[in-house]
Amino acid sequence: MSKTDPVRLAVRKTYKLYIGGAFPRSESGRSYPVTSSKGDFLANAAKASRKDARDAVSAARRAFPGWSGATPYNRGQILYRVAEMLEGRRAQFVAELVDAGTGRAEAGRNVDAAVDRLVWYAGWSDKITSIVGAANPVAGPYFNLSTPEPTGVVAVVAPEDPLLGLVSVVAPVIVTGNTCVVVAGERAPLPAVTLAEVLATSDLPGGVVNILTGSTAEIAPWLASHMDVNAIDLTGVTDAELAVACEEAAAENLKRVLRPTGGTDWSADPGTRRMTTFLETKTVWHPTGV
């Protein structure tokens, strides 16, 4: 740079919520500082409120008919597109994971694993029905068919693993036709906001995934007690008392609950459990005819 070149100020990124395909600030106007693993200031993240959680649930409910009615093949195509877009921003995700305290080599492996995880779930989109569904033998002149259907709106408390863990809890929920409201990891929320930007530019309809940043202890109970939430994944709840309180609140409208297990190895083969947990089984009887 020569002495005559103007000094340019960096354009600081504004981190917002992701609700209904848009990026609003919290209605409360609150934010909280996000720091690196070394304590350096990185950004101010929006601190979602109860009203933001309600708005996110409403957006997820509006998106549910269209998303659940899409063909499984189409949902798989969109998840694959998300993987493409995520890989295209690999350097940015690596930098954010490094800021969160992950070694650079490990951060690169985590981003690659997140891309692979999305591709893996995309491949399951048109196969899970064949694995979970069944033609049941019955004593009578009937066909008896059991087929899986999405549960509805799923609240997801994401783990503190800011990318691979996040992808590993969101992808199985949406690939089967559910929509979701995600509470991002409180300590390192920036990769979640960047993932929201990926989702917004990858053909995923607005409202299918809604991402809130802020206090897990504040937001999770409201989602657990919300009467228009059909299921809740408590994976990211590390406080035992909070987990119990959320389960008790979820019982009010018989939500499906995936309990926190702790110590999950997100790089391991995930299996089908997270997909089948948020599926309902519909059984149909039909005369065989003559």
TrEMBL record:
Short name of one Pfam family: Aldedh
Key words, A-Z: Oxidoreductase
InterPro entries to which the protein is assigned, alphabetical: Ald_DH/histidinol_DH (IPR016161), Ald_DH_N (IPR016162), Aldehyde_DH_dom (IPR015590)
GO MF annotation: an example: oxidoreductase activity
Manganese recorded as keyword: no
Keyword tRNA-binding: no
Spans through the membrane: none
Positions of the Aldehyde dehydrogenase domain: 34-264
Name under which the protein is recorded: Acyl-CoA reductase-like NAD-dependent aldehyde dehydrogenase
Lineage of source species: Bacteria, Bacillati, Actinomycetota, Actinomycetes, Streptosporangiales
